[in-house]
Specification:
Distance between the termini: 24 Å
Strand content: 15-25%
Shape: globular
Order of helices and strands: HHEEEEHHEHEHEEEEHHHH
Largest sheet: 10 strands, mixed
Length: 294
């Protein structure tokens, strides 16, 4: 067995790009090529030191069960924007849908996906894009019929989600957008009874024939799944409590965490706390995860 010191030195010397490419290619064999790709960055807070800012990763996440594009380390949230095209350039996105948060809602990104990659997009619109945001808020949503409604109870809350979709009457100030979406989330805290209401808006180049309200809701729900993925890394794997910062260790360990989550999902685990406890008690069974993925 290797010494503990070897286990510390090796991750610090690994080439993060090469590791991510190898693991991503292996996991991509099991991915559904029709599922959307979601982009959302995460800062590894524990990697911050007195003379070095925290490592910021931009994963392109495949909601179930694995990752299309493994994390790319960038200098910070501002550099996350410039990592968009390099991260996606090597993927076959023909006919696929890419979802991203407000930070990536950039004209160049939309044009790149549609004109270069022949892909679709669902872009979250917030006030960092004032013209599209104002356009979406002024649409007559009260006159637009409800497209779909869903309800979910769990994680200490009761949540109702409603989605309306409308073909835009004229082109908003965003490339290739043809359909507007309004998502209303009503959450009730089961412990306190507090109710919160949130309205979100999106633009997409999907036509109503490409993606009806039910399909649009599934796509958006898939994007929110990446937030749950971050939550598993933060809570179950205590990622932000890790203070390793030597060499490429922060990025390497993030890749290993993503790989562990993907393998556990391949093996049929849904709640990531359960396999974490199980394989901690039965480390000799961990190889079964890789064999399942084979």
């Amino acid at each position: 067995m290797p010494r503990a010191s070897t286990g510390c030195r090796l991750p610090a010397r690994l080439d993060g790009d090469a590791l991510d490419k190898a693991v991503g290619a292996w996991l991509a064999q099991h991915a559904d090529p029709g599922e959307p790709v979601a982009l959302d960055g995460k800062t590894l807070r524990g990697s911050r030191t007195a003379g070095q800012r925290a490592v910021h990763l931009v994963p392109g996440d495949h909601p179930q069960p694995m990752t299309d594009a493994e994390p790319a380390a960038v200098a910070g949230r501002s550099s996350e924007i410039t990592s968009f095209k390099p991260l996606l350039s090597g993927l076959d996105l023909n006919g696929r849908t890419v979802t991203f948060d407000a930070l990536h809602t950039q004209h160049d990104h939309a044009r790149f996906l549609v004109e270069t990659k022949n892909a679709h997009y669902v872009a979250l619109i917030k006030d960092n894009r004032p013209k599209p945001a104002a356009f979406l808020r002024t649409l007559p949503w009260s006159d637009i019929p409800l497209g779909t409604r869903s309800r979910e109870r769990g994680h200490g809350r009761d949540e109702i989600r409603r989605l309306k979709a409308a073909t835009v009457p004229h082109r908003p100030a965003f490339p290739h957008a043809v359909q507007a979406l309004q998502i209303v989330r009503r959450r009730r805290d089961l412990r306190t009874g507090k109710v919160t209401l949130e309205r979100l808006y999106s633009l997409t180049n999907h036509t109503a024939q490409d993606a009806d309200p039910t399909r649009s809701a599934q796509i958006i729900r898939g994007h929110w799944a990446i937030e749950a993925h971050h939550h598993v890394r933060y809570r179950t794997f205590a990622e932000d409590a890790s203070h390793v910062h030597t060499g490429t260790v922060p990025r390497t360990m993030a890749s290993f965490r993503n790989t562990a989550i993907a393998l556990a999902r391949l093996a049929g685990w849904d709640n990531m706390a359960a396999p974490t406890d199980y394989y901690r008690s039965h480390p000799d069974h961990a190889l079964d995860l890789i064999m399942t993925g084979s």
